[in-house]
Amino acid sequence: MQLSRYEEDALDGRYGDTVALAYRVLVAIGNAIEADRLIDVSWAHVSGVNYNTIGDAGLRFLEDISREGIKVKVKTTLNPMGYDRGRIEPTISDTFIERQERILDAYSRLGVTDIHSCTPYDRDVFPDIPPGGSQVSLAESNAAIYANSVLGLLTNKESAISALASAITGKAPYSNLRVQEKRYAKVCIDVRYDIKDELDYGLLGYYAGKLSEECIAFNGIDHDRLTSADMKALCSALGTSGSTGMFRLQSIDAKERYLFDRSDAMKVKDELSDSDNGDIIVFGSPQLGLDELSSIIDMLNGRRFRKRCMIFCARSVYSKASRLGYVDALERANATLYSGCCACLTPLISRDSVDSVITNSVKAAYYLRSWNKVGVCMRSMRSIIDNESV
């Protein structure tokens, strides 16, 4: 890699150990992916936040680098934490709270913006999204895919460490999806299934994510029917099953071509859904936006959930939803809103108190089964509300 004089000096430690470490990370990654240089980024989104995911080793690392007094060089946002500060449940231990707060303190010292959201592409969550064509560094998988595919931003599917290194330096290796020539699909999936809702898009995304690590094209999707919830479901499922960082909604002439039909959708659903019903209902992986909260209220049409319903959203979305009366309406319907955290990888849902959950999210289904060890019943949001409310 060709480095500037400043970058060479930073790598040699002239600007401190933490900056040098960040540059070593980026140079190592750059050499591995055959980048010829580092380029400037204008936004970073870091995923190493939840104590459940980074543990004591991650906590010690963050505390060590944050004590040097450096600040991030670009606007940097944070993924969800492990619990809702305003609604602490009995399943959240004092130890978990203490260590989670230390993680947040370390990020605060670094100057990171604590949106605590896996949907930073939602302008209700983060209004300062750079314009299309901007180079950014996003670690949350669904956010990276959404940024590339929907917003026209340029990012690789970063790790927590590489995104943090970009935040500290304002740099990223120039390769892969950061290069326009590499953002064209070589694999095309012909959709021969009548996709009706967000669950169908999630099943398609999970299927597609296993087929290629490169940009994927979808042929046969009705653009006019796509909602933001559909896009989120597709992006999050793609990020769950594979490492692709981008898709295109267009037909291409590709050597690699696959068919997605009803039988493929049912195979994915059978892989992820192992229960006929559930003890609780879970919405919000990725976190829900204002439009989705409004949709739930409209679908309920005055009815109440038969079972406990857990809904996850960003803090800013919760605040706006509260002012609009959505929070009160949902709580009257036997739903509880949790802000700043997510359905995945949280101690809020435990096998000790829950045998199985009902969810419309492919990402939630995957992680609730593999991490939380609970059974999963998958249905669309509409189906859940129609069958689980009175």
List the domain count as a whole number. 3
Name given to the CATH homologous superfamily of the largest domain: Aconitase, domain 3
Low-confidence stretches: none
Q: In which order are the strands of the major sheet placed? A: 12-11-10-13-14
Shape, principal axes of CA atoms = globular
Overview of this protein structure:
- With 390 residues, the chain is an alpha/beta fold.
- The chain folds into 3 domains: 5-173, Aconitase, domain 3, CATH 3.30.499; 184-270, no CATH class; 273-387, 2-Layer Sandwich (Aconitase, domain 3), CATH 3.30.499.
- Helix content is 40%, strand content 16%.
- The chain has 14 helices and 14 strands.
- The protein has a 5-stranded parallel sheet with strand order 12-11-10-13-14, with helices on both faces. It has a 4-stranded parallel sheet with strand order 8-7-6-9.
- Strand 2, helix 3 and strand 3 form a beta-alpha-beta unit.
- Helix 2 crosses helix 6 and helix 5 crosses helix 8.
- The protein is globular, with a radius of gyration of 21 Å.
- The termini are far apart.
- The mean pLDDT is 96.
